[in-house]
Amino acid sequence: QGGGEDYRPSSTLIHATGLNKDTRRDALAYIAEPRRTYDTATSYEVQSNASEADFRNLFRLDWNTDEVRAEILRRGPEVEPYLGSLEGLRLMRPSDPVETFFSFLCTPNNNLPRIVTMVAALSGYGPVLDTVEGVELRRFPEADVVASIPEQELRQRKFGYRAATIPRAAQELVRRGGREYLESLKHAPYEQAHAELVSFHGIGPKLADCIALFALHHTCAVPVDTHLWHAATRLYFPDWEKASITDLKYKAVSAHVRERFGDLTGWAHQHLFFDSVLNWRSRK
Length: 284
Prior knowledge:
This protein is mainly alpha-helical and 284 residues long. The protein has 2 domains: 64-89 and 219-284, Endonuclease Iii, domain 2 (Orthogonal Bundle), CATH 1.10.1670; 97-214, Endonuclease III, domain 1 (Orthogonal Bundle), CATH 1.10.340.30. It is 52% helix and 8% strand. It has helices at residues 21-31, 52-58, 65-75, 80-83, 97-105, 112-123, 143-147, 151-156, 162-176, 179-186, 190-198, 205-214, 226-235, 247-261, 265-279; strands at residues 14-16, 35-39, 44-47, 128-132, 135-139. The protein has a 3-stranded antiparallel β-sheet. α5 runs antiparallel to α12 (205-214) and α13 packs across α15.
């Protein structure tokens, strides 16, 4: 059968600002990320300032990845080659939809180092939670704060055209209800949530799917970027392998993958995406 049935499985980051890259990474690990104290072939011990429930929620530890992979293969056995080297891969569930929303607004036509720098810059507008060894630790700001950031300030921080689009999207988000609006979209049908997101200025279908999957936790969303496009056309639309992504082709590919994997589409996406990133040369 396809993905019609639902699978049932048996923290907000705190940002340090004003640091160089290496020091900031250490501060983030100290305050916000799990610290590995020992490891074996099968287990890790984690220390964190967050609760165990928050940690388990972030990494979906209530989901058995072996069962998820088996169910993905039952629904789509053709993806077996793409799952082989990715045991234990998890679909993360970020807890703060506002932070995740704006983080993805930093991603179009961008690279990871610049995205990290931009998200850290936005976090600098958030409230100070604590100071550790002279370093301010901040929570990501609410939408109304982002909406008030002057475009020129963001241009000086090398946001480029996003210096205009991010505050504008923030203003739209505030008008719609801010955090409560995003929380309400978590409970809306995927199709409605996606339609609401693409109605924002500057948010297209792929960005809307990224936000739907990671900020709103719609696990039937499938962001079709270059990596997913290569995998999906190779598997399902071979005549399109050398074609460019258009809106119509995007809709066709995402609908087919969603029909195939249902509520595990987001999980299947992660495996196809990372396999393409790691093995794209050998799969040409």
